[in-house]
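Cytochrome P450 CYP307A1: structure tokens wanted.
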Amino acid sequence: MSATTIVLLLLSTILALIRVFVHGLGHSFTGNQKLSPGAAAGKSMPGPKPWPLIGDLPRLGGTASPFQAFSQMSRVYGEIYKLRLGSSDCVVVSSFRLIKEVLIAKGAHFGGRPDLLRFHALFGGDRNNSLALCDWSSLQKTRRGIARTYCSPRFASSNYDQLDRVASQETDCLIQHVDLHLRKSNSIHIKPLILAACANMFSSYMCSVRFKYEDTGFRDMVRRFDVIFWEINQGYAVDFLPWLQPFYSKHLDKLTGWTRDIRRFVHERVVEDRLQKEGGGGADAEPKDFTDALLAHLRDDPTPTWHHILYELEDFLGGHSAVGNLAMLVLTAIVRHPEVGKKIQEEVDSITKGTRSINLFDKAEMPYTEATILETLRTTSSPIVPHVATQNTTIADYPVQKGTIVFLNNYELNTAAEYWEDADQFRPERFISDGQIKKPEYFIPFSTGKRTCIGQKLVNGFCFILITRLLQHYDISALDLDQIDTRPACVALPPDSFPLKITHRSTSHT
Ligand code: HEM
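Answer:
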């Protein structure tokens, strides 16, 4: 099961089903008063009075997204307030100032993750197998360290070249598949094709192996990852009300089964194949990819065990679902705002002059395209995984007990009028100043601090190539805008999502 899958969707995951569960008990917050925590030392943190047993869960039921409820409550209780969700003590932090205090100044006090049943079910019975859901530890530091070189390749390094190469090759293959579909119809369900391309980008880059789109095992693996990505996004009341477990046991078993299938595929088709063909590389050989680096680490230092290594690989391979869903959301924004697609095509044409394909090294010269991806990240507002206090500490001088779950409300950072002009409009230009990309410091779609996302360079690189190359070849529009349904604070689309109208551009652009 992918870390990314969970990472991106965690908050909405947890809370969306809670919304369903408590629907009807919703409470609406209309106040507009911001409390200053200022000299709050010694005072108790503001917050509503919880109901017995379910706590404040019903307060999250009155809006389309629980994040909207968090933001509304912040107008009443201020930039920091406490909530009780089921049996869990929680704190919601909504201002950049205090989010920085939690993630950076006091990152060492907030390195834990919530201990939810579902996390264990997804990771073979122990959430510490997961990079995103484990508590902070020296093992986690080691795992992040091994991943860094491959997941954050330096510009112009050999890994960066490799990233560019696999992104281009896999997009060529995607385009061949789209062309095949276009012989039959210009209405195409492009999401499974994009996901297959992304899965091959990740497996080629990290494991030097790719799969045919027709390969049933590969298709099942891609589908399972995507279904889980979407499924988790729906959220579960059982996360905060563990006594509901008997009602969810079938569901938890289903999740366990899907993740077991994925793990089997990674083991048999990626790792075993490699070990049989190459015996895991020579002791002194330079690792040729992430898989080699993991296997080499295992030889030198068995602290992360064989078992950990497999989970780490699976976690990173699963990152493709996040990239594929994000690429779909960029296309969704483009079909909703056709002028955005036209501007990207103009940018592409001005760089290539119709003589070649876009590559990663063009990115610096294509601020509008990059800004469109950033604006998609802003407007979809992927949640930050909740952090947990690992010691008694404070935020804004308010005492916070060890074990408290801390929600970092980046939905507020992404949508509030105090941070963005015309925040509800899709306007990539807001990220461009003097022809360069300019990101405000409070824009943190990948979070910040010691548990920041490891995959952001892969996301930016792969998504950039996918979008530019697709728009270089095709005009993409909606068959029916009403079919296109996206949710606030959600970076997932249903596995069986809407088709798009795809046509060849009238003149050749490559
Ligand atoms: C749309 C794409 C993505 C977005 C918006 C995103 C965002 C995030 C966010 C917000 C976090 C939480 C950080 C925190 O808790 O403070 C995170 C963690 C993480 N992400 Fe991503 N992510 C994306 C894709 C990826 C990909 C492709 C990978 C892997 C290749 C990845 C690997 C991870 C890992 C391993 C963590 C956990 C780090 C830790 O807890 O130490 N992410 N991501």
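Residues 245-278 form the longest helix (34 residues). The pocket of protoporphyrin IX containing FE is lined by residues 3-4, 7-8, 103, 131-132, 140, 144, 151, 316, 319, 322-323, 326, 377, 382, 384-385, 445-447, 451-455, 458-459, 491 (CB under 6 Å).

Cheers.
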